[in-house]
Predict the 3D structure of the following.
Amino acid sequence: MLNADPLLRRPKLVTAALLTRALDGLRPKVSSPVEIWQKLTDQYVVDLDAVAALLPATEPETHWLPARD
């Protein structure tokens, strides 16, 4: 995330409904969750915890141990 410019006015997404509408508008334009985070924080003032609750968490790849004989 870039340092926020305090002189630049950005819309605030303070409710889950507004945040959901913004996410729905951004999803066709971006290809990864990282880009969604970047676009949201560059264009809006958001509650990061609310964004994290709405975006699916990335799960680590399962690493299976070899079977014993």
Notes: The longest helix spans residues 16-26. The chain has three helices and two strands. The two ends are 50 Å apart (CA to CA).
